[in-house]
Structure formats: C-alpha cells, structure tokens
Design a protein that fits this description.
The chain is 82% helix and 0% strand. By secondary structure, the chain is an all-alpha fold. The chain starts with a helix and ends with a helix. The mean pLDDT is 85.
C-alpha cells in the first residue's frame, strides 16, 4: 500500500510542475512556495518508499544529487546566467524523480533544453505568429525560461516512473489481490 501512496504523491507533483513551467514561461519567475511544495511531495514520496523497502539508498542519492546540483548551479546564478528559481528547482527535482531515475531525467532535460535553445534561436520555425513574437522578445531580453525544460523533463520522468510501477503491479498480480 505504501507504493500506491508514494505514486500518488508523485502524481500530485505533475500539475504543480505544469504550473511552474507555465508561470516560468509567462513571468520568468518560479515561486519559492511551488518549489517548497514540490520538495515536500518528493521527500514524502521517498520516505514512503524508504518505509516500504527499508533502504535509505534512494533518499541519500537524491539528497546528494540535489546538493551537487545546487552547488554546481549556484555560481551561474551569481553570474546572472541562470535564475535563482531555476537553481532551486534543479536542486529539488532529484527528490521528486528519485535517485535511480536521475539518468532518465538528465537525458530528457538535455533533449528539452536543446529544443528550448533551438526555439529561442530560430523562433520563425514555430507555428503561431504571436508565439514567435513572444519568443523573439525573450531572445532580445536574453531571458530563457529554463524552468520549462526542467519541469517538462520532470513530468515525463515522473509519468514514466508511475507507468513502470503500474505495469509492474499489474503483471505481478498485486492489483488483483487488492480487488
């Protein structure tokens, strides 16, 4: 039963990540409240998994990854190359995805960051005129909403984790036992 609650906490993080992406795209701000709520959901999910498995490995790996990401990105914030909200969001995402799925998150983040950079450099490839104007405005200001690819990569990773666990639960007969 603890797995179901852990997956539910992860599922609750998906709309929050979508909200973070939208707000970062429209206002170039990531609220501390949203990052803190995301941290609570991630830590709660990991704690439920710790209670289920009895191993603190995933929690420790997530904490170490979050600390490394914060320390590595903090100088970029000091140089004004990345926003403070982006740094905090990157430090919190390992708690949400879990330590074992950080590789999946990293690959997805790389893909979505490259797509975002491509959209910023070539806004005329985008379909809507208003969207192109907005992206050009962001490009002139030198602002890239990096919270968008972070959030989208985290959403995809979280959805993949939920899907894998549901397939594992259905193939092992656990769902039939719960009914």
């Amino acid at each position: 039963m603890l797995l179901v609650e852990a997956l539910l906490l992860k599922a609750l993080a998906i709309p929050l990540l979508a909200r973070i992406a939208w707000l970062d795209f429209t206002t170039q701000r990531i609220a501390n409240r949203d990052v803190l709520l995301l941290l609570c959901l991630g830590v709660g999910s990991l704690l439920l998994l710790v209670l289920r498995s009895g191993s603190w490995w995933d929690m420790g790996l997530s904490a170490a990854a979050g600390l490394v990401l914060f320390v590595a990105l903090f100088p970029f914030w000091l140089l004004r190359k990345i926003g403070a909200g982006d740094v905090k969001l990157m430090a919190v995402v390992p708690f949400l995805t879990g330590g074992e799925d950080l590789v999946v998150f990293s690959v997805l983040l790389l893909v979505f960051a490259l797509v975002t950079a491509g959209a910023m450099k070539n806004p005329f490839l985008l379909p809507a005129g208003a969207f192109r104007i907005y992206v050009q405005h962001l490009d002139r200001k030198g602002v890239v909403p990096f919270g968008v690819p972070i959030s989208v990569a985290a959403i995809c990773t979280t959805a993949l984790v939920i899907y894998e666990n549901m397939v594992l639960a259905s193939s092992s007969g656990i769902l039939n036992q719960l009914n």
